[in-house]
Amino acid sequence: MLVRQLILASGSPYRLQRLKEAGLDPLVHAANIDESPQKHEDALTLSARLSKEKAYAVSAHYQNGFIIGSDQVAEVLLDSHSERLGKPGSKLKAQEQLALCSGRTVKFHTSLTVVDAESKRDVTQTETVTVIFNTLTPSQIATYINADNPIQCAGSFMMERAGIFLFKKILSEDPNALIGIPMIALRECLTLLEVDIFDLLKRSK
């Protein structure tokens, strides 16, 4: 049976790189959707909804293939509530985010949706990674930001680089989710859509 093309509904270079490192070679078609949270929407629900909306937005452009949508929402756990962490966009905001996370627990909810563009069947899974931050000094935070410049990364760090030194512990079934795409969930979603990911590996060579 002919295995159809994977299409990544994201312009994230980190997601694309992780897929390529795993031996996959998707097309890239970035989704353009409104990512604003709905009223009273929690972080996990927001992540799942946006991953699905991204996948379906891109699926409208294809008659076949498997569209991969993914979204990550981070929240730092404070004493009485949680606060969402977005992409900082500047070094100053990154310093503020990491100071807030210092010594605290942060949850990263990364959802992945795969849509079969032909049948419009879809499967969504969410992986939550719990990160416990070390207590960080202002000097350590500044040094880290200058090293990785993580201003386009939710939570203000790059785990695959020096950001790993910010953490005391990572609790996860799939640490790939921190980079933005849970690879174990990807295999499970494709399996539920009756696609063997190993066929895709053979095709990409």
UniProtKB/TrEMBL annotation:
Keywords assigned: Cytoplasm, Hydrolase, Nucleotide metabolism
Main subcellular localisation: cytoplasm
A Pfam entry, by short name: Maf
Residue positions of the active site: D71 (proton acceptor)
Cofactors: a divalent metal cation
Compartmental location: Cytoplasm
GO cellular component: cytoplasm
Cross-referenced SUPFAM superfamilies: ITPase-like
Entry keyword annotation includes Cytoplasm: yes
Site (Important for substrate specificity): residue numbering on this chain: Y14, Q72, E160
GO biological process, alphabetically ordered: nucleotide metabolic process
Class of the enzyme per the UniProt entry, highest EC level: hydrolase
GO MF term set: nucleoside triphosphate diphosphatase activity
EC number assigned by the record: 3.6.1.-
Similarity section: Belongs to the Maf family. YceF subfamily.
UniProt function note: Nucleoside triphosphate pyrophosphatase that hydrolyzes 7-methyl-GTP (m(7)GTP). May have a dual role in cell division arrest and in preventing the incorporation of modified nucleotides into cellular nucleic acids.
Name of the protein: 7-methyl-GTP pyrophosphatase
